[in-house]
Amino acid sequence: MKIERAVIEDMPEILELQKLAYQSEAEIYNDFTIAPLTQTLEEIKNDFANQLFLKAVTNDKIVGSVRAYKKGDSCFIGRLIVHPDFQNQGIGTKLMNEMETIFEGCKRFELFTGHRSKRNLYLYQKLGYKKFKTEKISENLKLVYLEKFRK
Fold this sequence. Notes:
Elements: E1 2-5, H1 11-21, H2 23-29, H3 35-38, H4 41-50, E2 52-58, E3 61-71, E4 74-82, H5 91-102, E5 108-114, H6 118-126, E6 130-136, E7 142-149
Parallel strand pairs: 4-5
Antiparallel strand pairs: 1-2, 2-3, 3-4, 5-7, 6-7
């Protein structure tokens, strides 16, 4: 498995993987209208124009991805995804570590996940992220914001 920068031609495959990976999140919240599931190819291509995408590749197949952008001294990380058949193999950790390496000039990293997304919260906290804010989106969903400061 290798981690590398994604290219615009990868967007259809990453979007397909995103929709597969976010099914479990949609089930947790009983909401299949969440943005990662309704994003269009045009929208993800627009994201690609403004964000750095990484991909995890095994046997010429994308099995994971994450995206981020820098604003000020902060790096905002989003949509860490790993194919369900490849979860719990360290791919998410490798993608996160590589993103933090690429954005080494940033003093702070920020991301968010849903309050019931226990596996995500566990991973991010294991990687050194700490909760700093919770935002109520609906009766079923609160977003938990986490941050990590570079030492």
